[in-house]
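Appendix B, example 12.
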Amino acid sequence: MVDRCLELRPAPDQVAGPRRGPDHRLAEGNHVMTGSASEGSSLPGIDTGVIAALTELGFSQYEARTYAGLIGREPMTGYAVAKETLVPQPKVYETLGRLVERGAVLQVSGAPAKFVAVAPARVLSELEREFRQRLATVELEVSRMRRENDQMQELRLYKETNSWIEIVSAASHLISGAAERIYVSGHGTYLDALGDEIAAADRRGVRIDVLCFGEPPFSLHNGVVIRHSSTDGVVYRHHQSRHLAVTCDTTAALWALAPEGDTWEAVWSDHDPLLTALVKGFIRHDIFSQRMFRDFSTEMLARYGAGLEGLFDRHPADAEEVTPRAAGEKKGTAGRGSRRLA
């Protein structure tokens, strides 16, 4: 008894090439069946790899077995197909009908009805065309939804924690990935925990600007450590609050706060330009104010007092007061020598 055929190999006029993906076994157009059935195969004469590939492309199990059983064969009746593929005979004609509808099988005679497989290359090409068409439809509908919902707010996802250990770990991770620029702000006690990662970034040539409250725990070669001198030696209740702010390049940032100095909460992201710009602006503003204090400390302390607390005494709208003009005084001359900053 002649063994049933198992392997698919290209017809002589086809040249097989390396292909990838679940459909690579179907990529060649015309095939002939050769070889013997492998021992233990549940479907003698059919490559089970082809069946698996077809099911991944959306064929049902019966459809995959039926189409695979027809590949490279002469036209076959439904009875022969059922016998070859082990698809139950009551189901085989229903399955063949669906394959005809999807263009994978052709009916070539009517009495008795016989069926032949469409070349796999044509079937795959049609599947690809249909998939691209469905994908384009989905993209169009999604773009319409976006236009309709332009005014709706989108949620930004941040990582968060209440653990100081996790805060240090997250900040260290961000710093280790920085390539060009780092800004850091915090009390020297807490900056010390980041000393190794900051030193490593400094050695990599990353520009680093650090604003330090209290004694700086390290120095830098490729940046500066600026001490927050305006609050040195001054203790107020709100000065008990502690923070740690870190930005790395243009998209990574961390903001951590301990309002009472011991219980922390933090948020961070490694891909949010908005958060990064916000935290960077906070640090840079503080750096600029400390540079001004360095240059004009005598005047600022005399004007605003220790810790520059006077800056918060009045509302910004009351920043300037002008003495009323004397009778007969020309407009534009009043106020000279009478203006004062709140």
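The chain has a mean pLDDT of 78. The longest strand covers residues 181-187.
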